[in-house]
Structure formats: C-alpha cells, structure tokens
C-alpha cells in the first residue's frame, strides 16, 4: 500500500515553527529508513539455504547495499511511514514565537548611578 501525499518539506513554514516542522520531517524519514533496514534484514535472514558465495565479506556488502536501498526507499516515501508519522505528530509541533536575540536597549544615554 502506498500513501500519496504532498512533499513534507514543501509544507514547512518559516521561523521556529518551520524549524520544528523540518526536524519532524527529517526524523520521520530517518525512522522510515530504520524500519525498512530492519525489514530488509529480516527478509534476507529468512534464506533457506547457504549459497556458494556466502561469507562475512559478502554479508557486509549486502548489509551496506540493503542500507542504501532502505535510505533510497525512505527518501522517496515508498512505504508512506514518514508521511503517516508527520500526519500524526504534525499537529503537536507548536509554532513557538521567535525569542529576541538580545534585550531591548533604551534609547539615549544610560542614566548615571545614584541619580
């Protein structure tokens, strides 16, 4: 099943709320990649017989290839897990007002002490 949605990064706003939204998008995509790596690893471990080329080096390269495949699938939203996470947790991302970088200084010269 594939969920079609708009690109999560296209909906990101500006300011602190936009930064929170962008962080949510990134984490949701990373979660989908981790999930896909686990799923691909479980599928690969379900092999019923040993092949002639099975070795630790082959397994290491297969693991790297599986990780790249999972990352590519997650970046395209192939499973839709990231989109569902964004849909679920997107409402919780609060648009916090931007805090001033320094307190406002009064206009004019500072009053002398003891005056």
Explain briefly what this protein structure is.
By secondary structure, the chain is an all-alpha fold. Helix content is 53%, strand content 0%.
Can you lay out the helices and strands and say which pair or pack?
Layout: H1 15-45, H2 56-76, H3 81-89
Helix pairs in contact: 1-2, 1-3
- Overall SS class: mainly alpha
Largest sheet: none
Q: What is the percentage of strand-forming residues?
A: under 5%
Structural Rg: 24 Å
In sequence order, what are the helices and strands, one letter per element?
Answer: HHH
Total DSSP helices: 3
The residue-averaged pLDDT reads: 75
Number of strands: 0
How would you describe this structure to a colleague?
- With 115 residues, the protein is mainly alpha-helical.
- The protein has helices spanning 15-45, 56-76, 81-89.
- Helix 1 runs antiparallel to helix 3.
- The termini are far apart.
- Residues 1-13 and 96-102 have low confidence and may be disordered.
């Amino acid at each position: 099943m594939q969920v079609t949605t708009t690109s999560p990064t296209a909906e990101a706003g500006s300011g602190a709320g936009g930064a929170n939204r962008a962080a949510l998008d990134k984490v949701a995509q990373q979660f989908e990649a981790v999930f896909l790596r686990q799923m691909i690893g479980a599928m690969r471990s379900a092999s019923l017989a040993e092949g002639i080329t099975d070795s630790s080096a082959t397994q290491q390269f297969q693991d790297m290839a599986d990780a790249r495949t999972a990352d590519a699938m997650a970046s395209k939203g192939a499973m839709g897990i990231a989109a569902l996470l964004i849909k679920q947790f997107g409402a919780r991302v609060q648009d916090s007002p931007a805090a001033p970088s320094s307190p406002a200084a009064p206009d004019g010269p500072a009053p002398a002490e003891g005056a």
